[in-house]
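Exercise 7. Given the encoded structure of a 147-residue chain, write a plausible sequence.
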C-alpha cells in the first residue's frame, strides 16, 4: 500500500526540523553543504566546475536519455523501484543544463522526493506565498550552493 503524498508545506517543515535549521533557506543550504562534504570525503576537494555527475550518483539518481515531459529544462521522476530518474533537455545551453541538474539534485534533499515528479519551472514567475513555488525557489538556492 502506498502512503498518501504529504503537502508541500509539510515537506518544507520536515526539512527544517530534520536539519535543526532556523528556517527553510538555512536548511536547504545545510543539505547542499552536506552533499559537498560527502563529495570531499569520497573524492577530495572538487575542482571547478564541480562534477555534477558525481553529485547525481551520490544521491542515487539515475539518468535517462528521454527528454523531460513536464518541463522545458529538467525533471525528476519516480523510477518505479523506489528511486528517481533525471531527464535533462540536451538542447538547452550548457550553463542552463548544469543549473537544472543541480536544481533537480536539490529536490532529493526533501523527504518523500521519490513519490512524485519534480520539474524545474520558470523562476521569473514564482510566487513565494505558493508552497510549491517556494519549494522550487529553495531548490534554486541549493543549486547555486552546489555550483
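Solution.
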Amino acid at each position: 500500500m502506498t502512503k498518501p503524498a504529504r503537502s508541500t508545506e509539510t515537506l518544507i517543515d520536515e526539512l527544517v526540523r530534520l536539519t535543526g535549521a532556523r528556517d527553510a533557506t538555512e536548511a536547504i543550504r545545510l543539505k547542499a553543504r552536506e552533499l559537498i562534504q560527502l563529495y570531499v570525503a569520497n573524492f577530495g576537494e572538487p575542482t571547478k566546475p564541480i562534477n555534477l555527475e558525481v553529485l547525481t550518483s551520490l544521491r542515487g539518481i539515475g539518468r535517462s536519455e528521454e527528454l523531460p515531459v513536464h518541463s522545458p529544462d529538467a525533471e525528476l521522476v519516480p523510477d518505479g523501484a523506489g528511486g528517481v530518474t533525471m531527464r535533462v533537455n540536451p538542447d538547452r545551453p550548457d550553463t542552463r543544463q548544469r543549473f537544472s541538474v543541480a536544481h533537480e539534485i536539490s529536490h532529493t534533499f526533501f523527504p518523500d522526493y521519490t513519490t512524485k515528479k519534480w520539474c524545474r519551472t520558470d523562476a521569473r514567475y514564482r510566487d513565494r506565498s505558493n508552497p510549491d513555488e517556494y519549494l522550487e525557489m529553495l531548490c534554486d538556492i541549493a543549486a547555486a550552493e552546489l555550483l
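Remark. The chain has a mean pLDDT of 89. Students should compare their own answers with the one above.
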